[in-house]
Amino acid sequence: MLEALQDRLKGELADEFGLHQVDDHHYRVTTPFQFVDGDHLVVLLKREGDSWVFSDEGHTLMRLTYDFDVRELERGPRRNAISSALATYQVERHDTELRSRVNGEGYGLALLALVQAVIRVSDVSYLQQHRAKSTFVGYLDEVMREVVPARRLAFRWRDPEHDWEGKFPVEYRISAAPAPLFAFALPTDIRVRDATITLLQHQQWGNPHISVGIYKRRSALTSKVLGRFEEVCDIQIEAAGLSRQGLIQEISRYAD
Prior knowledge:
Blueprint: H1 2-12, E1 18-23, E2 26-30, E3 43-48, E4 51-55, H2 59-64, H3 76-88, E5 92-94, E6 97-101, H4 107-122, H5 127-147, E7 153-157, E8 170-174, E9 181-186, H6 189-205, E10 210-215, H7 223-232, E11 235-238, H8 244-255
Parallel strand pairs: 9-10, 10-11
Antiparallel strand pairs: 1-2, 2-3, 3-4, 4-6, 5-6, 7-8, 8-9
Helix pairs in contact: 3-4, 4-6, 5-8, 6-7
């Protein structure tokens, strides 16, 4: 049973995902993803009747209580951010536990949904930081409009066949030959991590693409997060040190 589940996860995702048996109905899941402070995500795969569920065992919300009173998480923008993340990825909340149920044979999809939700929920600690960092994304939006004709450029593109809810959006999809470019603005570790998960999911769906990561400043990113992204990214560009025209020329090399 363990080998079959292990092979299924690695076949759907990558070799860095693994299972370690706790007992007949519980398996500890290892993933290549970490929180910004370096802690590993906690994920357990457990059997409930005839179905399987991925669970964070309450670890994510417990971490937030290190920084906030529990009451702060149940009101205002933090509550809204948590609710939005869970709804987006169809992850259930049972008290403090976050859970993603496996539908049919979709183990990889259920696991990535939980990972994305956990990361989004943990982001509530950085709401103010994210607002500041969004200026780079706005700048890159403008650059993309200048470089790529509107008929070839889609913002926050989602796969209409597999992802009509937009759980794994591609920041910039550029129509090109021999395959479309999937480009991402990467000012922070969190965005790099999200882009890594998105690219893994599109690989699983078999969507042909050439991936492009555009860093605000590469040296500001942690080596582990960066290393995992580099394994799935084809082209990397650093905006730091480039003038606006220099960045336009660099992107044009691949988008034309």
